[in-house]
Amino acid sequence: MIPTDTNLIAVCGVYCGACKSYLKGKCPGCKENQKASWCKTRTCCLENNYLSCADCTDFDDPMDCKKYNTIFSKIFAFIFRSNRPACIQFIKEKGYDEFAREMADKQLIFIKK
Fold first, then answer.
1. Cα angle: 81, vertex 50, 8; to 5 degrees
2. End-to-end distance of the chain based on CA atoms, in angstroms?
3. Which residues pair with 44 in a beta bridge?
4. pLDDT tens-digit profile of 44-73?
5. Is pLDDT of 17 > 90?
């Protein structure tokens, strides 16, 4: 069963609660992953006390942010057909609770392209 928990929403819009690594106990999720210091998006959100990029007021579209829109994120999006900006937009429009509920109900890590 996929948990519905807003704490399992990664800063970039990925829903860790539906991730196999998280569910198998191999990953603590974005917010608890101390090894993820390499992630500029995570660092930015932590420094600014944002729950995710949806809270950022500097960019309406996260793809305009160079910390969010990196070569790594482009490769991830291509390989997994993920649409993390759609996740951020969903959170902005409907909130964290509704996003976590929707992702858990549909057993999705992210919205697909």
1. 55
2. 24
3. none
4. 999 999 999 999 999 999 999 999 999 999
5. yes
pTM: 0.92
> 3-state SS of the chain?
CCCCCHHHECCCCCEHHHCHHHHCCCCCCHHHCHHHHHCHHHHHHHHCCCCCHHHCCCCCCHHHCCCCCCHHHHHHHHHHCECHHHHHHHHHHHCHHHHHHHHHHHCCCCCEC
Q: Which residues, 6+ apart, have CB-to-CB distance to 46 below 8 Å?
A: 11
At position 23, the amino acid (one-letter code) is L
Tell me the domain boundaries of the chain: 6-106
- Rounded Cα distance between 88 and 14, Å, is 9
Percent pLDDT > 70 in the chain is 100
- Give CA–CA dist 2/18, Å, rounded: 6
Tokens in use for 23? 């569910």
In the chain, what is the greatest distance between 2 CA atoms, to the nearest angstrom?
36
Residue 10 reports pLDDT greater than 90: yes
